[in-house]
Amino acid sequence: xxxxxxxxxxxxxxxxxxxxxxxxxxxxxxxxxxxxxxxxxxxxxxxxxxxxxxxxxxxxxxxxxxxxxxxxxxxxxxxxxxxxxxxxxxxxxxxxxxxxxxxxxxxxxxxxxxxxxxxxxxxxxxxxxxxxxxxxxxxxxxxxxxxxxxxxxxxxxxxxxxxxxxxxxxxxxxxxxxxxxxxxxxxxxxxxxxxxxxxxxxxxxxxxxxxxxxxxxxxxxxxxxxxxxxxxxxxxxxxxxxxxxxxxxxxxxxxxxxxxxxxxxxxxxxxxxxxxxxxxxxxxxxxxxxxxxxxxxxxxxxxxxxxxxxxxxxxxxxxxxxxxxxxxxxxxxxxxxxxxxxxxxxxxxxxxxxxxxxxxxxxxxxxxxxxxxxxxxxxxxxxxxxxxxxxxxxxxxxxxxxxxxxxxxxxxxxxxxxxxxxxxxxxxxxxxxxxxxxxxxxxxxxxxxxxxxxxxxxxxxxxxxxxxxxxxxxxxxxxxxxxxxxxxxxxxxxxxxxxxxxxxxxxxxxxxxx
Length: 514
Prior knowledge:
Elements: H1 11-19, E1 24-27, H2 30-48, E2 53-54, H3 56-59, H4 66-76, E3 79-84, H5 88-94, H6 107-116, E4 123-129, H7 145-148, E5 153-155, H8 160-176, H9 193-196, H10 216-229, E6 232-236, H11 240-248, H12 260-270, H13 273-284, H14 292-306, E7 315-318, H15 324-331, E8 336-342, E9 350-354, E10 361-362, E11 384-388, E12 391-392, E13 395-397, E14 400-402, E15 405-406, H16 410-418, H17 428-435, E16 438-442, H18 449-459, E17 468-472, H19 477-484, E18 488-492, H20 495-513
Parallel strand pairs: 1-2, 1-3, 3-4, 4-5, 6-7, 6-16, 7-11, 8-11, 16-17, 17-18
Antiparallel strand pairs: 8-9, 9-10, 12-15, 13-14
Helix pairs in contact: 4-6, 10-20, 11-12, 12-13, 14-15, 14-20, 16-18
C-alpha cells in the first residue's frame, strides 16, 4: 500500500481545512488493522493537518493518561472512523466478558461505544478492510449495534489510494455539513403553565361521571416522582385487543367477545398449539412504529439531562410480547438492559438477563443475583431496565435464542399463578424496586388476566404500599372499586392524550426548574 498521497493536496487547501477543521478519530484493533491505521492516518493528516487527526500511536505522549486523552479526542471529533478487518469480530469475542465479574478491558470497543452514544454528535463511519463484511446486528453486543446500521466505506489494500481519496471526500462532505444545533427547551410560560394546573377533561371518555380525568396536580405529582426520585415504575399492559381480534378470526362467531386469554386458550384447545403460536408469530412480527408512550419513556433520561437535571432511569415492566418498546430505545440510542421471563426452553420458569454491555445470563438464583443495573443499597437504577414478565416474541440476542415463549392462555396464567413463591421467580432487585415504587399502570383494564396475575404474584393480593395510578380510556364504577382494593387511583383518559399531556407538563415545568 502507499502512504504518499500528501503532495496531491495544495497548501491552500490544507490551510482552508485548518480554518474550518474537522476532527478525525481513527479507531482500530492492533491485531487486526494496525498497519492500515498508520497508513490511513498519514494520508488523512496530509489533507486535514496532523493536529486534526487522532491515532493513538501518533498522538499520545509519555506521561499522558492515554485513556482520558482518547476519551477527550473521541468525544470532540466530528468524524469517527472504525476500521474493521478480518480479525475484528474474533478480537471482539475474545474480549467479551462472559459474566458480570469479568474484568476484561476492550478499549477499542469502549471508544466505539462513546462515539455511538446519544448526543455525542460524532459521525461514525465503519471502514471495511478488503473483503470484510459489516457485522450483523445480532452478532454484536447491543452497545455496538449502531455500528452495523451506519453507511460503511470500503478500503482495499490493492486500491488503497483510490479508496482513501473517496473516504477523504466523505469527510469533506461532513466538514461542509452544518453542525446540528441542540433543540431549544420549551420556554417557561409558553401558554400552558396556569392552564395545566386545572383539570383536563377528555371529551367522550369515562363511562361514569364519577371517574375523574387527570388534572394538573396529578401530572405534577407523577412528574416529581419521576424526575426527583426516579421512583415511578411504568407498567405497560398488552395490546390485547389486536391479538384477541386476530385470534378470534380463527374461531367460530360464538367466540367474538372472548378476551385474549380466553381466545388463546380456545385456539390452543380447538386448533392446537402450532396454530396458536404460528398466528401469534405472524401478528407480532408485523413491526409497527413505537407508540407515543414508548417514545416518551425512551426520551425521558435525555429530557432531564437537557434541562440540566440528573438523569433518572426507570424500571419498566411490560406484559407485551412485541419489541416496540425496545425499538424506541434503540431509535433514541438510549442504553437499556432487558430481563425476559422464559416459559419454555432450558431456562423455563426463570428470567434471563440481557445486559447492555455483555452476554446474556440466566438468573438461576433470584435471591442471590445482583447483576441487574439496580443499586443493591439505594435501589436507584444505573441504566433503564425493561422487564418482560410474560415472555416475548421468538427472537435471539447475544447468541441466546427462544421460541414459543408466551404466558398467554388461561392454562399458562394458572400455572404462572400457582408456581412457587414469587421470591423464587422474580429477582430480588426487581421485586424490591417494584414494591417500593409508585406504579403507573397504562394500557390495562382491571379485567385483564395479565393484570390480575401480575398484582396477585407481586403483591400477593395486598394493597400497593406506595401511591399508584391507573389510566383507562373508559373506566366504570367496577373498575374504580377494583383498583381501589389495591390502593390504586383510577383516572379516565385516552392513553396517547395522557402521555402527551404528561410530557408537555415536563417540558414546561422542567424548563422553569432547569
